[in-house]
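Entry for the shared binder. Reason: the reviewer on the internal report wants the predicted structure included alongside the sequence.
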Amino acid sequence: MKQVILITGGAGYIGSHAVKELRNKGYRPVVYDNLSTGHQWAVKKDELIEGDLEDISHVQQILRQKNPVAIMHFAASSLVSESMQRPERYFHNNVINTLNLLETMLATGVKYCIFSSSAAVYGNPHHVPIPEDHPLDPVNPYGEGKVFVEKALRWYEKAHGFKYISLRYFNAAGADPEGELGEEHEPETHLIPRMLEVAVGTRPFIEIYGTDYDTPDGTCIRDYIHVTDLALAHILALEALLDGTPSRAYNLGNQRGFSVKEVVDVARGVTGHPIPTKESPRRPGDPPVLVAGSEKIKKELGWKPRYNDLTTIIKTAWRGMLK
């Protein structure tokens, strides 16, 4: 019998790619999603249960029925700029609802959790690339919530024997190379799909938020990691936990940063479109540079990103948008 993995937020962008890779690896994914930002179409061949983590009794019922060996927890609000305006929403959705999930796991005996964390836990880095032992000093409520959950997981392990791996993503990008899945948010806030919307004519220009950062061209620098490589890292983390690996946190990035202007230039080359830009003020809560140090997961779990150059990442996103 196939091992069941419950994926909260599995109808969303990263979660749906993880679901596909779980299925490919012989697991039985069960998706739990309230579809507030996820999409029913993104759950192609697997079971989808519509529900909210606020409903503790329903989550507990599902865990008892499905008896998963582990949970991959993607469900969260994820817009940094919105978290600056509505911190209450982010602490409710990302912290309280995660504690609800942990409560149901305790009640039903599920001991393994892969947690979708973020580079936002680091805040303004003291040095780059950023290692996992860098101080956690977030500069926005989104990152603060991720730090809280990571700390909670450590205490749950001490008290209850929980085992977990926190995966700190840098900038997820791209789309399923086989064309089954893509990226769709409403509203769209991610840089690469917004640029591609300009190229297909549904957006007049791309806004560049801040051109006065202390970087070579004045724009923010980010480390872009392909969504399939993120998904495959989740499988490695799951299998490591099931094999007895101790709880820990890993960065997920390509260890190379690109400025906003550099990303726009690559997208122009991929699409053949001029992609006009408009300079706008900085967004609150945006650090100037975020670049991952990812040697730890490569060394300990054997993670090897397959799509590690920006041109390839944008090409998969472009194909996904044109399908």
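Summary line for the report: The mean pLDDT is 95.
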